[in-house]
Amino acid sequence: MTNTKQILAMLKSQAEGDTDRFYSIALQIAASEARKGHRATATEIREAVDGVRSKNSRGASVPISFAQPRGELESLLDLQEPKLKLTDVVLQPTVSERLKDLIREQVKRDWLREHGKTPNRRVLFVGPPGSGKTMTAEALAGELKLPLYVIRLESLITRYMGETAAKLRLVFDETLKRRGVYLFDEFDAIGGTRKASNDVAEMRRVLNSFLQLMEKPNATDSVLLGATNHPELLDQALLRRFDLVLEFDLPTDEQIKKLIQKYLRPLKFPRLRWKEIVECARGLSQSEIARASEDAVKTAILDERNTLNSEDVLRRLKDRADMRRAFGQIK
Description:
CATH superfamily of the largest domain: P-loop containing nucleotide triphosphate hydrolases
Structural class: alpha/beta
Strand order of the largest sheet: 1-3-4-5-2-6
Low-confidence stretches: 58-65
CATH topology of the largest domain: Rossmann fold
């Protein structure tokens, strides 16, 4: 039977409007019932909690109020309200499945904590520019209905001794207070190997601080994301700190077709020459293909057409390829 303290705690949390605490106590009761062999009762309680949570969040883009960082944090964190979900990003099947596992652990983190386990929350995205790392970070935040905070490296890293490590600690302290998804883009700027020939003592101290801060327990289960185009520059000590390392790549032929179809909608595009289009898009990143497709749609809209043809898409893909050549990325 549920003890008096748990009943009182549930009533108090309900009176204070602390729904997270209310649900947590309910799940603790479910775990207690399961340990006693009352599995049907435990399952019924858990399903009731999931049902109420789902009902309360239905129809809302986010279930919490996203607060803008204040004080010194205002210059260190860029708040972004996510508008994407995983279905908006074309990912390799293995990456997609591992992200779904991560989301499941985060969504049911109370269940794990009942049994002394914590959800995975430290993730490294590796891949070439434009392969979907930043889009996936936003989609992950969108799936979890959490704010996305992008760490501003230009404000974080300074030339004054001890200042960068102090600012880094401020960011990590915020992850303990405010649950969210925190993205360290261009992560190699912080996580570069300590053996690098151009390294300085200050950046070694920064990396050491980062490694120590990553190891600290986090009661909010905030998700820490590192994203890098240059994994070869990272210090090897980071590998055991991350729960997941996900490798992104340029889209395959099948993914190219899915991407273009996705971004050409809602306009019609019958009888496109897919073989020619896919061949033209090879070597382009996910973001470049998405932008090329959107440019083709905008042209059709301005031409007062509701149908796209192959030339519309090919022209925009070639424009993107020309842009890459201008930057010397295609030889």
